[in-house]
Design brief:
The protein folds into 6 domains: about 30-405 and about 440-505, 7 Propeller (Methylamine Dehydrogenase, Chain H); about 405-440, no CATH class; about 510-600, Immunoglobulin-like; about 610-640 and about 880-905 and about 985-1100, no CATH class; about 645-865, YVTN repeat-like/Quinoprotein amine dehydrogenase (Methylamine Dehydrogenase, Chain H); about 910-980, no CATH class. It has about 1100 residues and is mainly beta. The model is unreliable at about 1-20 (pLDDT under 50). The chain has 21 helices and 75 strands. It comes from Algoriphagus antarcticus. Keywords: Signal. Pfam families: FG-GAP_3 (PF13517), UnbV_ASPIC (PF07593).
Length: about 1100
């Protein structure tokens, strides 16, 4: 909801003074149960009201919740539904999907004007489920007091919120009952939503510590049946900027204590409260999670990838359809994005987030890799095994009844003529304001888990594809058949009841149901932790029914097992630390386990895997004091339609013994305005800075790559540094590449040879190659980009050494194909064809790997059509013989799969480079292929800022959104474009089979979670096979695509055939922060990590 835009907020302040028919598939997994069959008559209807509507109350369409629970203890799951304006309803399950409305008889309708979330829990510990209803709204005459319906055990309830201390009068969204202090009774976290107008906040002021009684969240401790607000002393924020929409509880760090995740709408960051085990919490989100949703809505916590760790999924508002995305979406610009971070709101992006638990206190956001990032205006999120195949799926309820972020509508109400008609001296004509808002129902999403964090939307195939506006949802086994059914609360439509037909459609799939019988005041064993083990598989879950958006799910645990018919063990860790273990349990049964029959854990035993001694250890007392500082440069201010910064690719790094003491020394390049630094090694292992005037004099240059070599045959290591970046124009003095000559004692002076310094493009890489085999080292220098014309093919060059350190550029004679060869990012000199001559391999952006053969003093590009399906955004290249066949294999670092850009050979992403409007300014238009046409990613308002004529051609967003590039621009203009293409973003290896044959093997899926900029080859486990350490990330990406930050360093254990096993960070101990740009070995068991805009580190192993 954050994108309701400042315009809408300002208008609200002012006011205070073609459809596709839905067809049901023939054999869907879920069958819709009609009200005539179920007896459930309920619809959350919202009608227009002059005094209470979407403009007078911004949460008007947030909808109602669903609670499932057996309120009469007959073994059948009952349903409670909340309505915003109408009465809430309780339906008793009579069996076989027949229900009886007992609302009036039970006394549970509620008396407040606007209900939201609902939680079922045995609040008083008498063995019967009670119902807690959150109330909100801002309706005159209503005090919003929350209601607690205490179950009398005879089919009736009495409202006792006041007596229990839970009659809160805030703007409540949801509540969760859980035992946070482990004293044996249930406490409550109450999620409230700020009432203050968004446009009225001064975001430069830190409002977070200030408490607000009606808008802020609250934590209530249960003191002998009376709930006491302990928020402040417990460390829980309760301010006006807490726009809470989602709460979910789980033990994310495996210390057996429940932690809390809060998803906040609008500008406030989400909260991750880690339980300190003493009645207090520490808000730790920024220490654990690098990126969050911008408009966080619902959330759920569960082990989605089957590794025994709880992951977090958060919904946002990004549409899946590109046409709809262009109709309702705006993204924050770079300045606003940086403002949010500077003022404490963290890194926020407009998309769903899947925070995958790394098991070491950190999470990696991998929603884009999992294909879960875009589900439109989403609310409820539920992680559960929908088809019982043994992998947890994901259901997302979505839709806003009226598209208040529709960009054509926002332009309409911003029109002066419209304002004059709507706003008059007599007030605001709200009906004229609201009636034009588009109504576009969107199907909910049901993602099938295909394994390895790969999901496919099966909503249509599974019978859940009706276009609708849904909010709260809950899963539960309504007919006790071992499959999970689904109940969804909709706006202006009857409630959806979906019967799971998996038992008859997929009889080969099994499940195990577990009923936990608690004790004392915690009769449902809330907080119990359950682990099911079957062979190598682990199924981990926690007893926490209050989850999803405003909802509560079945307290009975249902675990899909796939084709497993018997599980080896079921382990339960009860909230008091006692333990139950049963073995050899048959599937497809209800297993009842009692807390009071549990025993203490055996001495030395642990419910969770014990932490092993880690392999990698960061050097705490730094022997090296180097911090790279990046110069301030925002590429997007000039290249407005690009998505990644190209000015942050340094620093350069090189190592050699420069002073002849037998110890390697280290050179680090500087960003523009910062000089390079030379650190001299010592026997003690420490490095000291060596003053070098020559480096200081060239501080204006951006140092991108460097290499030590003996240029002039005097026996000492000289240094060549190539300049690049994206800040300076072609021919600028600061772009010259530089040769520094060593006097043999580690003192460098700059060579003044004019031809070498005349190379003033933006370079990326330098490699030493004796091309003419005269014994004098020559140089290859790779061209990164044409300054100010990103996308144009850059030229690389060959420099021949006369043996005295004088270089002449001889590309046209020795390697003419290097002219305009492309945007090279890395290169290696190797004998890839095993003919005894040094060849050259190049990688870059928008190109496939390029292999050049040394034909006897000249380099010839070898055409390899089989590699044309590997055009990528490569950033690094490393060489190793991974399979022991004596041939060098190519290890490639690419963009990865955790990206907005989804590509294949048949659906490439292209970039058109042209001055489309002939005004002297270059534009970059990224497109994706749909069928036979190219459709731009660029939003209308972004394109018209660069090409103003677009605004005249397309007055409405709806006219632009489905246009192909050839619709927007004449073909004769497009024909003059430089066109670049990518069709592969995976990192991996090209295995050298000999005879010019290479076989592509991508890295494991987890190693595709971020950009790879650095690769280190080493046999880490001494098994004779080469292993890999990968480093990367790119923080400086436009908010529209989001930063690439999921990697903490990836370790791949080689199998000796070019394939690898992923070694999780929690097990190997590697935890790299920031943008990694280079690795280097500093001797046995020492790894140097070089970072952009951060301190270098040394890790021991």
């Amino acid at each position: 909801m954050k994108r309701t835009l400042q315009l809408l907020a300002l208008l609200t302040l002012l006011f205070a003074c073609g459809k596709k028919e839905h067809t049901t598939p023939s054999h869907p997994l879920f069958e819709s149960v009609q009200s005539s069959e179920s007896g459930i008559i309920f619809s959350n209807d919202l009608t227009y009201d002059e005094s209470f509507n979407i403009f007078t109350y911004r949460n008007f369409y947030n909808g109602g919740g669903v609670a499932l629970g057996d309120v009469n203890n007959d073994g059948l799951l009952d349903i409670y539904l909340t309505a915003n304006l109408g009465p809430n309803k309780l339906f008793i399950n009579k069996g076989d999907f027949e229900f009886e409305d007992v609302t009036e008889l039970s006394g549970t309708a509620g008396t407040r004007a606007w209900s939201t979330g609902v939680a079922m829990a045995d609040v008083n510990g008498d063995g019967f489920l009670d119902i807690y209803v959150c109330n909100s709204g801002d309706i005159s005459g209503d005090n919003k007091q929350n209601e607690l319906f205490i179950n009398q055990g005879n089919g009736t309830f009495t409202e006792q919120a006041e007596a229990y201390g839970l009659a809160d009068k805030g703007f409540s969204t949801h509540a969760v009952f859980f035992d946070y202090d482990k004293d044996g009774d249930l406490d409550t976290y109450l999620l409230n939503n700020s009432y203050q107008s968004i446009g009225s906040f001064n975001k430069m002021q830190n409002e977070r510590p200030k408490r607000d009684s009606v808008g802020g969240d609250k934590l209530f401790r249960n003191d002998d049946g009376k709930f006491v607000d302990v928020s402040a002393e417990a460390g829980i924020y309760g301010s006006l900027i807490g726009f809470g929409l989602g709460i979910t509880i789980g033990d994310v760090n495996q210390d057996s204590w429940p932690d809390i995740f809060i998803s906040n709408d609008f500008f406030e960051k989400d909260y991750l409260y880690i339980n300190n085990q003493d009645g207090t919490f520490t808000e730790s989100l920024e220490k654990s999670i690098r990126s969050i949703s911008a408009a966080s809505m619902g959330a759920d916590i569960a082990d989605i990838n089957g590794d025994g760790l709880l992951d977090i999924f958060v919904t946002d508002m990004l549409p899946e359809s590109q046409t709809r995305l262009k109709q309702i979406t705006t993204f924050e610009n770079w300045d606003k994005f940086q403002f949010n971070k500077t003022h404490g709101y963290h890194y926020q992006f407009s998309r769903n987030m899947l925070h995958v638990n790394n098991g070491d206190g950190t999470f990696s956001e991998m929603g884009r890799l999992a294909n879960l990032e875009a589900t439109d205006w989403s609310w409820g999120a539920l992680i559960f095994d929908m088809d019982n195949d043994g992998k947890r799926d994901l259901f997302v309820a979505n839709g806003i009844y009226q598209d208040i972020t529709d960009l054509d509508y926002l332009n309409f109400i911003d029109d002066d003529e419209t304002k004059s008609k709507i706003i008059s001296e007599s007030g605001v004509n709200y009906k004229a304001l609201i009636d034009p808002i588009p109504i576009n129902p969107i199907p909910n999403f049901a993602y099938q888990n295909l394994g390895e964090l790969n999901f496919e939307n099966m909503a249509e195939a599974w019978g859940l594809g009706e276009a609708i506006h849904s909010n709260g949802a809950a899963y539960g086994d309504l007919n006790n058949d071992g499959t999970l059914d689904l109940v969804v609360n909709n706006v202006n439509k009857p409630v959806s009841i979906f019967k799971n037909k998996g038992r008859e459609l997929n009889p080969e799939y099994h499940s195990l149901q577990i009923q936990l019988i608690g004790k004392g005041k915690n009769t449902q064993a809330i907080g119990a932790q359950v682990k099911i083990i079957a062979g190598e598989q682990i199924f981990y879950t926690e007893q926490m029914p209050n989850r999803g958006f405003e909802s509560s799910v079945d307290p009975k645990l249902t675990i899909g097992l796939g084709e497993i018919e018997t599980v080896d063990q079921v382990k339960v860790l009860w909230p008091d630390g006692s333990f139950t273990q049963v073995e050899n349990i048959q599937a497809d049964k209800l297993l009842k386990l009692k807390w009071d029959e549990a025993k203490p854990l055996a001495e030395g035993e642990s419910f969770f895997d014990k932490k092993e001694a880690t392999f990698f250890h960061k050097e705490e007392q730094a022997s090296l004091d180097f911090t790279h500082q990046e110069n301030p440069m925002v590429d997007f201010d000039r290249d407005r339609l690009t998505f990644h910064m190209y000015s942050t690719e340094g620093p350069a790094f090189a190592k050699a013994d420069v002073n002849g003491d037998g110890i390697e020394d280290l050179y680090f390049g500087g960003a523009k305005g910062f000089s390079g630094r030379l650190f001299l090694g010592s026997k003690s292992g420490k490095y000291r800075l060596s003053d070098q005037t020559a480096f200081d004099n060239d501080a204006l240059s951006e140092d991108i790559d460097a290499v030590f070599f003996d240029a002039n045959a005097d026996g000492s290591q000289d240094l060549v540094v190539v300049s690049g970046g994206n800040e300076s124009g072609l021919g600028a003095l600061e772009l010259e590449d530089r040769l520094y000559l060593n006097d043999g004692k580690g003192h460098f002076t700059k060579s003044q040879q004019q031809e070498f310094s005349a190379n003033r493009g933006s370079s990326s890489v330098v490699q030493v190659i004796d091309l003419n085999e005269d014994g004098a080292p020559d140089l290859f220098i790779g061209g990164r980009l044409v300054p100010f014309v990103y996308g144009a093919p850059a030229s690389s060059s060959i420099w021949i050494n006369d043996g005295k350190g004088n270089f002449s550029e001889q590309t046209s004679t020795l390697a003419p194909e290097l002219t305009e060869i492309g945007m090279i990012t890395d290169a290696k000199v190797i004998d890839w064809d095993n003919d005894g001559k040094n060849d050259l391999v190049l990688v870059g952006e928008w190109i496939a790997p390029i292999l050049m053969r040394n034909t006897g003093g000249k380099l010839q590009k070898i055409e390899m059509p089989e590699l044309q399906n590997l055009k990528g955004w490569y950033r690094t290249l490393e060489i190793a013989d991974l399979d022991g066949n004596g041939l060098p294999d190519l290890i490639l670092g690419n963009n990865g799969l955790n990206s907005r850009f989804k590509v294949s050979e048949s659906t490439p992403v292209k970039m058109y480079l042209n001055d489309f409007d002939q005004n002297g300014s270059i534009e970059h238009i990224f497109t994706r292929q749909e069928g036979e046409v190219q459709v731009p990613y660029t939003l209308k308002h972004e394109l018209e800022r660069q090409i103003p004529s677009i605004k005249k051609k397309y007055m409405r967003y709806s006219n632009y959104n489905n246009q192909s590039l050839s619709d927007i621009f004449p073909q004769e203009v497009l024909d003059k474009s430089i066109i670049n293409e990518i069709n592969s973003l995976q990192s991996g290896v090209l295995m050298n089979e000999g005879n010019e044959k290479f076989t592509w093997r991508p890295f494991p899926r987890m190693a595709q979670r971020s950009y790879v900029f650095a690769i280190q080859v080493a046999d880490l486990n001494n098994d004779g096979n080469q292993d890999l350490i990968l480093g990367g990330n790119l923080f400086n990406a436009k908010p529209e695509v989001g930063k690439y930050d999921a990697s903490y360093g990836d370790v791949l254990l080689g199998k000796g055939d070019g394939t690898f096993e992923y070694w999780p960070n929690a097990k190997n101990g590697l935890k790299l922060e920031g943008d990694i740009r280079a690795f280097a070995s500093l001797g046995e068991g020492k790894l140097l990590v070089v970072k952009n805009s951060a301190s270098a580190e040394i890790w021991n192993y």
